[in-house]
Amino acid sequence: MSQVLILEALDLLKAGNFLPGAEMEKAHQICQAHEGVVEFDWVHALVHRIEGDDANADYWYQLVGKPRHPGSIEEEWHIVRTAIASA
Q: What is the reported pLDDT for 1?
């Protein structure tokens, strides 16, 4: 896993205020380029959650064996970023 790239994707989501837009699209591209790597796929789930595509998000959450966080997107972002940064 490229920790630098996955953290870049996560930081793009925050830079875009957890809203669809250019930053989210760039994060999505990074994740798609590393499909099959659990950490990237986890962020991929978060990307689809942000865009409101729950079915697609749920596919990615199931794929990586992670639950969708019941709280806010920002709370989930902190959980994901902390887990990846400490790996």
A: 65
Give the long-range contacts of residues 17-22, CB within 8 A, separation 24 or more.
Answer: 18/50, 18/73, 18/74, 18/77, 19/50, 20/50, 20/51, 20/52
Task: Report the C-alpha gap between 41 and 73 in whole angstroms.
Answer: 16
Q: What is the pLDDT of residue 18?
A: 97
User: What's the mean pLDDT when you consider all of the chain?
Assistant: 96
- Distances in Å between the Cα of 14 and the Cα atoms of 4, 10, 49, 63, 77 are 15, 7, 14, 24, 8
How many Å apart are CA 39 and CA 37, to the nearest integer?
6
